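Assemble and predict.
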Amino acid sequence: MSSTLKKKRNDLITTIKRHQEAYYSKDQPKISDEAYDQLVAELFSLDHELNIPRSSTEKTLGVGHKKRDEFFSVEHSTPMLSLDNAFSFDELDLFFKRVTDFIKKNRIDFVPKYSAEIKLDGVAVSLTYMDGELKTAATRGDGLVGEDITDNVKSMNGVPEVLNLKSKNKSNITYFENSIIEIRGEVIFSKKDFERFNKYQERASEKLFSNPRNAAAGSLRQLDAAITKSRPLTFIVHGVGKTSGSITDDLITHSSFLELMESVGFKIIRPRIKNGHPNIIKDYINQILNIRESLPVEIDGIVVKIENYELQSMLGSTVRAPRFAIAYKLPSETAITEVIGIDIQVGRFGTLTPVARLKTVSIGGVNISNATLHNEDELRKKGVKIGDRVEVRRAGDVIPEVVRTVNTSIRKSDNSLSFEIPKFCPSCGGKTERLEGEVARRCISGKKCPAQFEQAFVHFVSKKAMNIDGLGTKLIQQLIRENLVNALDDIYNLKYFQLEKLDRFGAKSAQNLISSIDKSRVTTPAKLLYALGIRHVGLQTAKAICDALTCFEELFSLAPEKLALIDDIGPVVMFSVSSFFETRENLELTKRLLNEVSFKKEVFNKKGVFAGKNIVFTGTLRTLKRALAQELVQKNGGTCSGIITKKTDLCVAGEKAGSKAREAQKMKIKVIAEEEFLAMIDKNI
DNA sequence: CAGCCTCGAGTTCT
DNA sequence: CTCGAGGCTG
């Protein structure tokens, strides 16, 4: 091994560290980011020649600045939504039609123009600049809450720390002063960098990434920002989030926003379409499809957006996706493999789902060995049998799914076994039924069925329910097998010595589990209700129900008709909830659980016109949104419910108020109009 | 009553 | 992520 090379390497490390210190600790970089990256790249290429594992070098570079234990959560000021998909030009036309219909209906004097651009397959990131300076960066997360990755994006390719506008008439300082702008984009690894990087990794016997997207995600989510810094990541802008201040008025169209971003130091992707019409957009899509392979980056589809921001905001969004944009998706990658067997899984509510066990096959760098067959009808329609060769894809590039059988004509009949959904539950042997109009066949044994009990348990401890950390499926199975839990509340009576005795479970693990069980005791009414696992009651519905109550126990004696008065609760949910609490075991279980847990106390204002009062809204409010009205009540010291009960003090009736208002009158509860309500508030804010 | 929009339930792999 | 189905709106 060449000692000159080694010496060169050591010198290089010293130099890099010096620059790191200047950058991180003194905040005064002596060289440009590009020059720094160049040095790091040089170091890694030396490593390559010297056969030194990349990870050890990364560790070396990481020394000297603090590494953290975890990322902080950040709430997005406006949710980072996903996009609706179109899989064909027909579906794309439906999108254009919806827009023109909307324009016609609202008599807007506007010819809609569209932008189109490549949708990069990377990691969505949001950057917030205040007064033109990078303040925070966050990952998308679940769309509402992401992770703070500010350190990781600093100095990333395409992320200017200060926005420098090279404009003639406006100076930098005044342009972004007093403005906050949230810039959204994609962090990507180019195909070339990905291959180069994986070669390093391979030589160093390090973990390989399965595709550029994973490489980008893995590199970005490094707790040690120095590692992120050493990886060839690029940020490409694709949209704007929340803005405030003078900048807001300058943003008129999507394309002009992107051009502005480009002029202040961001990267945007080309070719793209600006101010296009549907036919131009389609031509562009065809063009991109043709050159897809030769593009330097992996792409996920093509995004079509309405150019004009004003029109965008008129169209608005659903909770999931904006109505002013759509993603034209490319056909997802598929693979052919063999069905080794078909298993039946029993879900939380007894649903029997056929799952194909496959000869493992790789799709987009992920090994697939199971794929859902959904239900009886799907199974029959696709005619999947054991021994068949099938085409498998990852629906939305995530969930494996059998698309079709191939070569069925030459299928050897003795090799292919037909498969039917069993009439009896594979877990408990009990009866199953398939109700008229439903796709699923269900085991009807309820919690007596071992599979259903196990699933109910998994649900109970899950994050959105009781959130008991460190209690996974395997452990749950073990607890059930050892007879340590026979009902959901038994979890709260587990003792340290019982856990410690379990196989492969030490003192430390037992201690941790006990403490996370205890931590879960403090929760919210909605989470508890959700955790109970009542059919048709998800977290949202549980929240809606709990918001309507003044205490949890009210549920036990609440008449079904009362439940149905709650917004978003119809006959089906009503029946499901009321029959749950009419069943004795369920009622007892819930009461026992209530003894084990406690609710965080909501702190309400003791002052204000509505202090201590419970108020119910009904009908359509003309000037206020329902949520805003409820907020106003809380600000004035009151609480809101969705249903009229003995505890209701006041009912505010909007337009077309119906049964709730009558109910209130019947119970001699004061009913007032929206105007009257507003008048009460105005005096007191 | 149809056509949204949302929610729930089921699923995979790392 | 996707499907189905519940519930609301026009």
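Chain A has a mean pLDDT of 82.
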